[in-house]
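To illustrate the input format used throughout this study, we show a single complete record. The first block contains the structure-token representation of the backbone; no residue identities are included at this stage. The design step must infer an amino acid for every position from geometry alone.
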């Protein structure tokens, strides 16, 4: 039987698509496999200088071009143009970087062009995937992103075993496969108009969103400046084995980063943008310690290199998990948020390598000291701006920035892109049942505004237009209906205060990761409260719980 992409579950298809993109990034910009012949020390890092420039320029251009085209009603055409340009730049860049190492006379010119193309492809495809993930629910995001990184690491290790021209060919094909998957029916979209939040990007809207996200972009710039600087500082000063310097640190870091990040997702109460520096700063200090303390061990640089990779993987996973949720919860444009993040990343990488590579070539031993100073600067910036309440998923802050916050997360029973029931909508049937029960009680209580508000909310979810969404009072009224229903359950079944809060969120169709972010508790705590709620009500799942409440309310009529 022929392989069909449609036969794969939606979540796995997205994981494969994003995984191909990430695998291309690692193979092109972090791999010795794309260096057939070592011409200079830190040869891949030298192409990274220009890829950072290309990444920043492309990200800024995308924000401007997409805003202009979207105002003219050509948003879909803009996204396809972004995908085609991104795939083309990525392919060309990978080929040019590989060819540049075949002859020293080609190296300088082709490294510049190849790096610029790779950087542009990295930003364009990354922004496109960020836009797609911004319309997935929280539970889907938190399960798909780690799986994507696992797939990318597996592809990376398999390709390293190949090497040679075949490595280059497969590496150049990966971004094409990723772009093809992102535009497949039922894989690219959950709503009718992806990226619609960018549709209102008039100049005032842009300024407002950038002022809202400015401190985040500054901190993200410093973090990538720190990562790139440390990457050069931990590189060996002489030619050495690629196995010990690249493959072993990368492999160890990949496994440890995945395990640590999955553990943090379950244990931490704050899985938001503050996780960027909470993850990277301690690891960078540890890495600097390995470089500053001369243990006389040849593998010392490899250990420091592995620590740097762990820091980088954690930062990347945090962005891919948190940024899409931030778009859903706060209502900013996915193109502004991801475009700004990629621009900050590119500028940080380019400036750090422009500063550090001359020092590396001169054999300056002060790179580790400089890295430690930059780590202190990141910690200082985190102290000054890193606790910005605008970065958090607190309900009050959310509702100040988008009137549609509550209504946006109510899953729709159908998806225009899927032409049927959307497999990505969480607990569609249960939410519909819970909402019907709530509307029935609202009608008896003389509150028809909530029902009309939900109709408007569905339209808002289709277009993701915070400026023209349902009035907040309707969302608040609907929330109060679920809260009153949960309070009735509390009096009848002995729920605690926290269990009552979680029950109200369950009735509104919220996923457990959403509840973790909303109530600032760990995912393990949410699981424990959910088990208690189900046990007291005699059910076994959220679907059964919502059906139970619906039937219970009808019997009481």
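Output of the design step:
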């Amino acid at each position: 039987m022929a392989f069909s992409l449609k036969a794969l579950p939606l979540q796995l298809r997205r994981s494969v698509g994003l995984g191909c993109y990430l695998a291309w990034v690692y193979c092109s910009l972090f791999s010795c496999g794309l260096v057939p012949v070592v011409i200079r020390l830190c040869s891949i890092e030298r192409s990274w200088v220009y890829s950072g420039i290309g990444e920043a320029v492309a990200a800024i251009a995308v924000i401007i071009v997409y805003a202009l085209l979207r105002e003219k009603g050509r948003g879909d055409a803009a996204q396809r143009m972004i995908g085609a340009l991104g795939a083309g730049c990525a392919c060309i860049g990978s080929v040019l970087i590989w060819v540049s190492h075949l002859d020293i006379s080609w190296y300088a010119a082709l490294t510049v062009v190849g790096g610029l193309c790779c950087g542009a492809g990295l930003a364009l495809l990354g922004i496109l995937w960020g836009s797609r993930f911004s319309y997935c629910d929280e539970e889907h995001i938190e399960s798909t992103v780690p799986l994507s990184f696992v797939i990318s690491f597996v592809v990376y290790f398999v390709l390293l075993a190949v090497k040679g021209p075949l490595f280059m060919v497969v590496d150049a094909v990966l971004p094409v496969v990723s772009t093809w998957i992102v535009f497949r029916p039922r894989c690219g979209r959950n709503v009718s108009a992806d990226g619609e939040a960018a549709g209102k990007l008039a100049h005032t809207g842009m300024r407002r969103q950038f002022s809202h996200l400015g401190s985040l972009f500054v901190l993200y710039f410093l973090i990538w400046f720190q990562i790139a600087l440390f990457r050069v500082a931990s590189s060996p000063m002489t030619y050495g084995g690629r196995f010990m310097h690249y493959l072993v640190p990368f492999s160890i870091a990949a496994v440890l980063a995945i395990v640590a990040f999955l553990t943090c997702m379950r244990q931490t109460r704050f899985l938001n943008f503050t996780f960027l520096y909470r993850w990277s700063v301690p690891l960078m200090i540890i890495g600097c310690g390995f470089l500053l303390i001369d243990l006389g061990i040849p593998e010392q640089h490899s250990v420091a290199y592995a620590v740097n990779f762990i820091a980088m993987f954690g930062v990347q996973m945090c962005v891919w998990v948190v940024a899409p949720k931030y778009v859903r919860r706060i209502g900013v444009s996915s193109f502004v948020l991801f475009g700004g993040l990629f621009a900050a990343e590119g500028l940080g990488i380019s400036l750090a390598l422009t500063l550090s590579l001359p020092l590396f070539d001169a054999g300056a031993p002060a790179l580790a000291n400089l890295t430690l100073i930059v780590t202190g600067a990141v910690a200082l910036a985190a102290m000054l701006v890193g606790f910005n309440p605008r970065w958090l998923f607190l309900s009050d802050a959310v509702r100040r920035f988008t009137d549609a916050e509550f209504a946006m997360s109510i899953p729709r029973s159908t998806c225009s892109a899927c032409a049927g029931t959307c497999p990505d909508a969480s607990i569609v049937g249960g939410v519909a049942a819970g909402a019907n029960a709530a509307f029935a009680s609202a009608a008896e209580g003389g509150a028809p505004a909530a029902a009309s508000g939900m109709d408007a909310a569905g339209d808002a979810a289709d277009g993701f237009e915070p400026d023209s969404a349902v009035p907040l009072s309707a969302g608040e009224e609907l929330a109060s209906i679920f809260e009153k229903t949960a309070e009735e359950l509390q009096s009848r079944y002995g729920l605690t205060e926290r269990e009552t809060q979680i029950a109200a969120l369950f009735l509104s169709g919220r996923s457990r990761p959403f509840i973790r972010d909303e109530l600032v508790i760990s995912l393990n705590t949410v699981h424990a409260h959910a088990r208690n709620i189900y046990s007291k009500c005699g059910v076994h799942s959220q679907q059964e719980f919502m059906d139970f409440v619906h039937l219970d309310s009808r019997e009481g009529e």
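Structural context for interpreting the output: The chain has 21 helices and no strands. Confidence is low (pLDDT under 50) at residues 187-204, 395-473.
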